Amino acid sequence: MSPFPHLQKTYDILTLKQNSMKIVIANESHFRYAQIISDTITESAKVRGTGIAKRTPEYIQKRLQNGNAIIALDGEKFAGFCYIEVWDHNKFVANSGLIVHPDYRNQGLAKKIKERIFQLSREKFPDAKIFGITTGLAVMKMNYELGYKPVTFSELTTDPEFWKGCQTCKNFDVLTRTEQKMCLCTGMLYDAAAKKKEVHKKEVDSKVFKRLKNIKEQLFLKKKKKNE
Ligand SMILES: CC(C)(COP(=O)(O)OP(=O)(O)OC[C@H]1O[C@@H](n2cnc3c(N)ncnc32)[C@H](O)[C@@H]1OP(=O)(O)O)[C@@H](O)C(=O)NCCC(=O)NCCS
Question: Nearest residue CA, atom 30 of ligand 1?
Answer without folding.
Answer: 138
